[in-house]
Amino acid sequence: MCATNIFTLLFLSFLMCRIFVAGIGFFSVCFLVTSLGGQLSPKRLRDSPFTIHTEVQGGLESRGVLRKISDMLEIILKRIDTLAKLSNTSESHRLEELSSPVGLMERIQAIAQNVSDIAVRMDQILQKSKSTDGIVGQCEVPKDPRYPDCASKVDWMRARWTSDPCYAFYGVDGSDCSFLIYLSEVEWFCPPLPWRNHSSQSTVSSAPERQAMVRSDLGPLLEQLGSGKESLSFMRRRMRRLTTQWAVAARRLHEHLLTFQRPQKRVLVHVGFLTEESGDVFSPKVLKGGPLGEMVQWADILAALHVLGHNLKISVSVKELQGFLGVPPGRGSCPLRGPLPFDLIYTDYHGLQQMKQHMGLSLKKHKCHIRVIDTFGTEPAYNHEEYATLHGYRTNWGYWNLNGRQYMTMFRNDHALIGSLTQHTLLTTPSWGLWLRNSTRQRGSAFKMTKSTTWLWSMVKRPACGR
């Protein structure tokens, strides 16, 4: 009799728990459908009445949450079915093992809490989805006549944005929104997006302008230049040998410029022909009679800029160049990470090619800041790319479309003149002065440069008129 009463009590508890579980499941589904605003669209049912097939705007994340709800409800249903089968048998000891009221209630409470947490998470996903949909709707390619290349650039980005890691560095992720943000804020092919907070973009505060002061001490420059290469050691030796002349010139210049205000320039000197990437063919030949004219010229340029009081940065490697300019990581397809940090850049053709490779569109934007040390100059026909191509002029060093005055040469024709420092010699006898007035000097780093100048020597030997 006692066993029968216990079994009856357990059976009634089981029925109440079953009704409670079913109610929890039904209430959870109704709550989710209501909270989702009717966005659940149930379709064909399969194995379980709780299996839900929906399309939610939250994407993969929301579908995963719904799958989790479905799995939990299926577990509840299986437990109810198991208990229902046991209720029709007389194995009361198995019923006690599988359907302990305390354990079952704890499980039901845990499931109810999980369902509530999932509902909150689903609401967050849907709110985020609505916000994203609002932005996506504003990411259509604008048709602005002031930006005619915007559409074609977006098409290019869709196909090639993974070709260089620098695009991902700037936040490109393959979406049209990221393309438009990049093309309007990093590059300049698309108009600014009205929904972007442009006021939050960092603006570079201009530092107070410093005045350039004439320097007579070359010590800081010699220390900055270093001596890691034989070519650099040669340049240091030349500067040190002419220190006295530079000091005298600095004092005279200071007296002349007392009433002038000169702003200090930020100057990058990138000696491209000394970089390992260009081969550095000069350093091994310094002590073997190799050409020294370029190194003489660069040594004097560095000394002159230092004496004039400008802020110098010296680069003799591509890595140093990238660091000074602020080149983003990648293969050089993207612009610099910020404004150009220099007022002037002195380089050569090797350095110009390296800058083109690593600066991307920034080279075209900042080309006017560049000065090219070109020993013998470049004819305008070879400088203008379209003209040279049309007339079949071929060269490894031209086609840069620079202003002629940006080429610094030893010969003042179409370019700016930049020579080298001449060493003064004290003349104590009249005979030396007479000899110098009647003498001619010809320079050439190789015999082939002077072998066809016999006509010049015949002119030199000819006596002067009236003598």
From TrEMBL:
GO terms for biological process: protein N-linked glycosylation. GO terms for molecular function: alpha-1,6-mannosylglycoprotein 6-beta-N-acetylglucosaminyltransferase activity. Its EC number is 2.4.1.155. Residues 166-425 form the Glycosyltransferase family 18 catalytic domain. It catalyses: N(4)-{beta-D-GlcNAc-(1->2)-[beta-D-GlcNAc-(1->4)]-alpha-D-Man-(1->3)-[beta-D-GlcNAc-(1->2)-alpha-D-Man-(1->6)]-beta-D-Man-(1->4)-beta-D-GlcNAc-(1->4)-beta-D-GlcNAc}-L-asparaginyl-[protein] + UDP-N-acetyl-alpha-D-glucosamine = N(4)-{beta-D-GlcNAc-(1->2)-[beta-D-GlcNAc-(1->4)]-alpha-D-Man-(1->3)-[beta-D-GlcNAc-(1->2)-[beta-D-GlcNAc-(1->6)]-alpha-D-Man-(1->6)]-beta-D-Man-(1->4)-beta-D-GlcNAc-(1->4)-beta-D-GlcNAc}-L-asparaginyl-[protein] + UDP + H(+). Signal peptide: none annotated. This is alpha-1,6-mannosyl-glycoprotein 6-beta-N-acetylglucosaminyltransferase.
